[in-house]
Write a structure and sequence with these properties.
Layout lengths: L6 E2 L4 E6 L2 E6 L1 H7 L2 E5 L6 E2 L4 E7 L3 E5 L4 E6 L2 H4 L3 H4 L8 E5 L11 H8 L2
Antiparallel strand pairs: 1-2, 2-3, 3-9, 4-6, 5-8, 6-7, 8-9
Amino acid sequence: MDPVDYLYSKDHGWILVEDGVGTIGLTDYAQREIGVIEHIELPEAEDSVEAGEPFGALESDQAVAEIFSPVTGDITEVNSRLAEHPGLINQSPYKEGWLVKVRVEHPEELKELFNLEKYQEYMQI
């Protein structure tokens, strides 16, 4: 089940914003479609990301895929556990498998994202 308090992008990413900082990850749907994740490349803390632009990449047993940011801002933290354990994304996409935390620069960008109900409708297309 997808967490209700999260917002979702068309790129199958999620963000949970608390006190102006958004934790970003991949949805359960995305990790299932990508397959067993074997390697991930993420930016460094202090790097900037742009809404709708790629900020990292991952490699699975099935494909190589870019990771897109749902918002613009500066990265405040990177999930360093993923370097040695990228499979955390498969095992726990909404908790242990988060990717980065970003200080949200333009909160209005959040209005472009889906709530859980709208994301589920989008997935039916």
